Amino acid sequence: MAVTNTAITLARRPRGRVRESDFRIVESPVPDVGAGDVLIRNHYLSLDPYMRGRMDDSPSYAQPVMIGETMIGATVGEVIDSNNDRFIPGDMVTGFLGWQLYAVATRGRGLTKIDSRDLPMTAYLGAAGMPGVAAWIGMTRIADPLPGKTVVISAASGAVGSAAGQIAKIKGARTIGIAGGAEKCAYVVDELGFDACVDHRSEAFASDLAASASHGVDIYFDNVGGKVLETVVQLLNPFACIPLRGLVSQYNEVRQHGLDNLQAILSNRVRMQGFIVSDQLDLWPSALADLSSWLVAGKVKYKETIAEGIESAPSAFIGVLNGENFGKQLVRLGP
Amino acid sequence: MAVTNTAITLARRPRGRVRESDFRIVESPVPDVGAGDVLIRNHYLSLDPYMRGRMDDSPSYAQPVMIGETMIGATVGEVIDSNNDRFIPGDMVTGFLGWQLYAVATRGRGLTKIDSRDLPMTAYLGAAGMPGVAAWIGMTRIADPLPGKTVVISAASGAVGSAAGQIAKIKGARTIGIAGGAEKCAYVVDELGFDACVDHRSEAFASDLAASASHGVDIYFDNVGGKVLETVVQLLNPFACIPLRGLVSQYNEVRQHGLDNLQAILSNRVRMQGFIVSDQLDLWPSALADLSSWLVAGKVKYKETIAEGIESAPSAFIGVLNGENFGKQLVRLGP
Lengths: 335, 335
Description:
Mean pLDDT of chain A: 94
Oligomer: homodimer
Helix content of chain A: 25-40%
Number of strands of chain A: 15
Largest interface: A-B, 34 and 34 residues
Number of helices of chain A: 9
Low-confidence stretches of chain A: none
């Protein structure tokens, strides 16, 4: 059958802000399914801030996307053809198959079968997937959110932040979110059960945060960097810990703003630890077991923003970088 | 006997650069030696960058020196009068007795008897004292300078840096110093045995460092912060570690320059750990046992710059903040 694939490729490297014209929509025949290969029809694509880094060719832990290549990304979809004993048509799988409707997974590599009876398939791109594992590693392997401690989480309504805060609550810590706008802050407290949430867009942000964290901050799970990081650092307690998971406020900036107040890191004997979720694949089974049980029990909740159709991916991705999404940003690819 | 003490007090808080007029020389009678107290004639005073922080009243891990109070500091001297069973006249002791010729240690608190047969008494203010322990904690408890790793140390000819680099060499790592000027760099390589040393005052500093650390940097023991930190961070390898011991380049600055390139911390999964040597008093016996044996065996060497007379302490301290001292800065107080 001559099925047509639709993919979104990188047309050029952005300098500073990403624009829709940095991407191109490309149609092409679906490739042949070779020996051992598996053909997948993607149902959902995950859009995540780390993708901004792959659009640059500066040195990084990961290869950049080349000009003309399909944008990379995590996906969930259905096996529609298989020359591989491990998969049959109808299997639902997660993969890293990129911004496209169809993909051939060579020898089935990178595919994981999922059971969509317990959880909706989109959960495997969020709280039961990479974002959830990132939150779990930061909150159980880098920081130790014991009762009595105060934990602050930026991008608290997002996929990683919302899971991180709920894990901190499960562990017994006092949990304060930071989010952009009153609606997100209300959601973080009312739906996710954080003890408080502070709006970083408010002019009173610094004083609001100081009032909420009146005993100082013991753990700061950072997804954003920039002004928010600089503000939280002023409130750190001695021996505080900063799991550094993302710097989304800086990804579109040509000139980076890091952290001026290193004296607070030194004086308070702070441990700042950068981490990348894909480093620690050995931890994924433990993380996913915890996350799945918490999701099924309703102890971890999440929100999704779903854009319709692959053509909407570039604008939805630009929205993610601007904090316009509310919860996990996905794109519905079909069918 | 009516002996006159000479002390240097804080006259006013500096804003930015320290000036000699921020200090005052004060004469007063030596206080009475009460029950349980010990009177010490100080022989040497240690001058260290951390003292700059105590001249400010901004929040810190330690109390500031009050206006009119004697400047604090580590000392080594001789017991000349004692109402305490643990000390007799003639005992040599280290203490934290400040910028003054005489001091009464209430109940003998904070005094440690030293044996000046094995090591010169000044060593107890340097490689066998607080600076040596700081180097030891950073290089054995925070970082792990295994063979095959590349270790970079700033302020490499200083009291902490020189010990840190020699410990890294003892542990088998490749060790690169950073120091100010050709004379210090030659000393770091020729006398201390570092594998290389790069002059941060050279216009070619960044490229010289990149050439020396051609396999990247696994451990950066930082004493200075600022431009040097920013330069080293560009060379970090994945999973690098930064024991953050000091930020001397910033202590005289009104506007702090921290670290812009946090993306390098995140992408490389770097652990940055601020630490204060006085937190870990339980580690001092192990540290001092190692350091003493290395000193006696000639595996750890050090250099001292000794200013003569208590009146020279303010200008010598300003020199420390400007990097003008070469090795450990001491003041000979007498007799």
